[in-house]
Amino acid sequence: MKSKQDFLNRLKLYEGAEYIYDDTGFIAWQMSTGENWEIIFIEVAETRKGYATELVKKFVKAVDPPYTSVFVFRLASNESAGHFYRSLGFTETLIKGLYKEDAILGVVNWDILKKKLCLNQ
């Protein structure tokens, strides 16, 4: 996992971005157009089942007002990230030419994400 200082240096590129950095890893997000949140970065401290899900839960709890959706971009070659996001209800669209290789845009409705995370109580 990146050091907190390395993470904060990278985050400076995103004015107004918010984040959580703790023992499980880090997640950063920003408000986008149309009452949507964009997950900018997510990285777990160790390859442990559940850490990434816990980070997303912390993000959702931190911004809990009703929003429309959450989206994320990932490299098309990063299928482990794809599996993770699809398990949370994200639908995916291939975007050619976004990065040096193809990218995937993942989008999930806010209520579906909360349901998948068991946060609808």
What does this structure look like?
- The chain has 121 residues and is an alpha+beta fold.
- The chain has one domain: 3-Layer(aba) Sandwich (Aminopeptidase).
- It is built from four helices and six strands.
- It has a six-stranded mixed sheet with strand order 1-2-3-4-6-5, sandwiched between helices.
- β3 (36-44), α2 and β4 form a beta-alpha-beta unit.
- The chain starts with a helix and ends in a 5-residue tail after the last helix.
Query: What is the gyration radius calculated from CA atoms?
Result: 14 Å
Order of helices and strands: HEEEHEHEEH
Shape: globular
Helix run count: 4
Please name the fourth-level CATH homologous superfamily: Gcn5-related N-acetyltransferase (GNAT)
Q: Assign the CATH architecture.
A: 3-Layer(aba) Sandwich
The total of beta strands comes to 6
List the domain count as a whole number: 1
pLDDT averaged residue by residue = 91
Q: What is the SS-derived class?
A: alpha+beta
Instruction: Report the sheet with the most strands, covering strand number, pairing sense and barrel closure.
Output: 6 strands, mixed
Q: Give the N-terminus to C-terminus distance in angstroms.
A: 32 Å
pLDDT < 50 runs, ≥5 residues? none
Beta-strand residue percentage = 25-35%
Cross-sheet strand order for the largest sheet: 1-2-3-4-6-5
CATH overall fold name: Aminopeptidase
**CATH classification class:** Alpha Beta
Q: Tell me the helix content.
A: 25-40%
